[in-house]
Design brief:
248 residues; alpha/beta; two-stranded antiparallel sheet; 10 strands
């Protein structure tokens, strides 16, 4: 019995009125949220929010160097969203919307370590689903787990990821879950660069990927605000075509 049913159980007329009022407010709030979501482009809205907190930085004329050695005009750190309560909630709720709209049959949630551990847990809690997370590789001590937590064998699992670049680490997590004995029905992520190599890898792995935002939305919003110049857009587009050889 939930909170509202407990109130009604008292059989007092005032309690029944209270439940009716709460029900109306919750319905109204939900409808307003859905209308607002239809009236705005979530990809662009989230891209702007990421740039506002400097979780995404663009430097087409002074490239960053990634751990892989690639030169890049963009640096993304979505973990910064966890430090801003309103944005943290925005990401959580929008990822939940993606799951409800695209993977309504999900029976459990799995986060990809380390970037998506926290966000995955927030999403699972909001949806009321079991949660686990996937390490990059099995531990070399203790139980030697790669999948931490407990999921029923055969369960339909949606994976939560932080950032999609080439897709390699994300799809390794998918394979680890499949080896564990669950059915991966898809993946949701905060952001993707949209590399062709990643799109092909997800197709080959048979994994449906849905993201909150992408590289195109970032460039569009950056141009709107003057963060990058119009002439820089061509440079940024070229990088995305062949990031491994760009600026070499």
């Amino acid at each position: 019995m939930n909170f509202y049913d407990n109130i009604v159980a008292s059989s007092e007329p005032s309690a029944r009125k209270l439940k009716k009022t709460f029900g109306f407010l919750l319905t109204y709030s939900y409808l307003c949220t859905q209308i607002n979501r239809m009236n705005m482009d979530i990809k662009n809205q989230f891209a702007k929010k990421l740039m506002d907190i400097q979780a995404i930085k663009l430097q087409p004329n002074d490239p960053f160097t990634w751990a892989s050695g690639w030169k890049s005009p963009i640096y993304t750190d979505n973990r910064k969203t966890l430090s801003f309560p309103s944005l943290r909630s925005f990401v959580k709720l929008e990822l939940c919307h993606l799951i409800q709209e695209n993977f309504p049959e999900a029976e459990a949630v799995a986060g990809v370590a380390t970037g998506a551990i926290a966000q995955g847990a927030l999403v699972a809690d909001q949806l009321g689903l079991p949660y686990s997370y996937v390490r990059p590789k099995p531990k070399d001590h203790g139980m030697g787990n790669q999948v931490e937590g407990e999921i029923e064998k055969g369960a339909k699992v949606v994976v939560v990821e932080d950032l999609i670049s080439t897709g390699g680490s994300s799809l390794k997590a998918v394979q680890a879950l499949r080896d564990y004995g669950v059915e991966v029905i898809g993946m949701v992520a905060s952001f993707t660069y949209g590399f062709p190599v990643a799109e092909e890898a997800f197709r080959e792995a048979g994994v449906k990927l849905i993201t909150l935002s992408n590289y195109e939305a970032v460039i569009e919003e950056a141009a709107k605000t003057g963060y990058v110049k119009e002439e820089d857009k061509a440079v940024l587009a070229e990088w995305r075509k062949s990031p491994s050889t760009w600026c070499q």
